[in-house]
Amino acid sequence: MSPAEEVMRDVADVVMPDLLSGSIPYQIRLLQIASYKSFEQRVTGYGSAPRYFGMLKIVEANPGIPQARLAEAIYLDRSSLVPILETLTREGWTLRRKTATDKRVRRVFLTDTGQARLQALEAEVRAHETMVVKGLTAADKSTLLGLLARVDANLRDYFGETA
Amino acid sequence: MSPAEEVMRDVADVVMPDLLSGSIPYQIRLLQIASYKSFEQRVTGYGSAPRYFGMLKIVEANPGIPQARLAEAIYLDRSSLVPILETLTREGWTLRRKTATDKRVRRVFLTDTGQARLQALEAEVRAHETMVVKGLTAADKSTLLGLLARVDANLRDYFGETA
DNA sequence: TATTGTTATACTCTATAACTATA
DNA sequence: TATAGTTATAGAGTATAACAATA
Predict the structure, then answer these.
(1) Are residues A125 and A139 in the same domain?
(2) B41 chain-A contacts, CB cut-off 8 A
């Protein structure tokens, strides 16, 4: 068997192109996938809530937010939010109330038990974040968030110009 | 109408919780979504290839890589890779050849035209990256990649310990 | 006319399990 | 027994278009 006929048997032997290793969007993408997977794997026992933790925190901070505003805040079409709220309402996290002054609008709230369970979930979220940023000093984290914010500003400019 | 009855009309009025603004995994997640969306919106005329650019670069750097190794390199199940390769092969980017020494294995290559078109696509990818990191110095980019690599190391440790 | 929430629908992406052929 | 590729299938998650109610 000539060397050219041998078959690669181990991922460790795969050559990663420099272009990818040095690409900030590519690294962010890989990191996001790994971070999200580890989060979902670790945080169990909260039904569908972990994946909507950010959204639930926004509801907590904006009690009675209209569905359309909530959808915009998490960059979803308002039709995509409907099944999510149905699930979270069925699981007891959220409730929707009609608005007296504008009968088109339904306002979203946390239930009392949703509020309480969100505290417990938040502790798990913080623990996960601690794992993710282990070894980074407060200055490192601040630097990282600052650089990510600058990248985010570029993307907002881009969408602002093209929208 | 009492103030409490007024309805929020603008996303700008939504309060973003500090926990989210200061969360590195959450910011990475939002950034990834925005970055990927801007990339797909900008780079057109290359069929399905833009979303698999990273994979195509890995094939380029590892000509003849077995499907199973390629799937591992991009963190996909090997069954998920099959329809992707069927599409890219149908569009003329890739080809698969059986291996003489191990008849189970199919090795993946770029076609000549795939190789040539990948050069043109790469120019678009670089232009997109330039937009994303606009305003960052070489030192900033290096710092950002270094901090992301440290986060990535934490996640690899985590998966290494739990797998 | 425009907005809100909803429904119907379709498409993309992914994993799991089971199969075949080979090793 | 284990591995490589495939197929069938199912489940998220999302968007678009069209609708009724309301502004």
Answers:
(1) no
(2) 162
Indicate the number of domains in chain A.
2
Contacts of B5 in chain A (CB under 8 A): 99-101
Kindly determine whether the C-beta of residue A78 is less than 7 Å away from any atom of nucleic acid strand C: yes
Domain enclosing residue B67, as ranges: 25-132
Q: Is the CB of residue A20 inside 7 Å of nucleic acid strand D?
A: no
Q: Which residues of A touch B149 (CB under 8 A)?
A: 27
Residues A57 and A97 placed together within one structural domain of the fold: yes
Per the prediction, chain A carries an average pLDDT of 93
pLDDT band at A153 (very low <50, low <70, confident <90, very high): very high
Residues in CB range of A149: below 8 A, 6 or more apart: B27
pLDDT band at B2, cuts 50/70/90?
Answer: very low
Same domain, A56 and A128: yes
Closest residue (CA) to C1' of nucleotide C22 is B104
* pLDDT digits 0-9 by tens, B78-136: 999 999 999 999 999 999 999 999 999 999 999 999 999 999 999 999 999 999 999 99
- Using a 7 Å CB cutoff, list residues 98-157 of A near strand C: 104-107
Say what the alpha-carbon torsion angle A131, A133, A137, A140 is, to the nearest 10 degrees: 180
A87-98 pLDDT, tens digit per residue, is 999 999 999 999
Q: Separation of CA A120 and C1' D12 in angstroms?
A: 25
Q: Would you say residue A32 lies in a domain?
A: no
pTM of the predicted protein model: 0.92
In angstroms, rounded to a whole number, what is the distance separating the alpha carbons of residues B72 and A12? 10
The region that residue B16 occupies, defined by phi over 0 for left and psi between -120 and 50 for alpha, beta otherwise, is beta
Q: Which nucleotide minimizes the distance between its C1' and the CA of B83?
A: D6
Beta-strand runs (E) in A73-154: 94-98, 106-110
Residue B137 carries which side chain, given as an amino acid letter? T
pLDDT tens across A98-122, in order?
A: 999 999 999 999 999 999 999 999 9
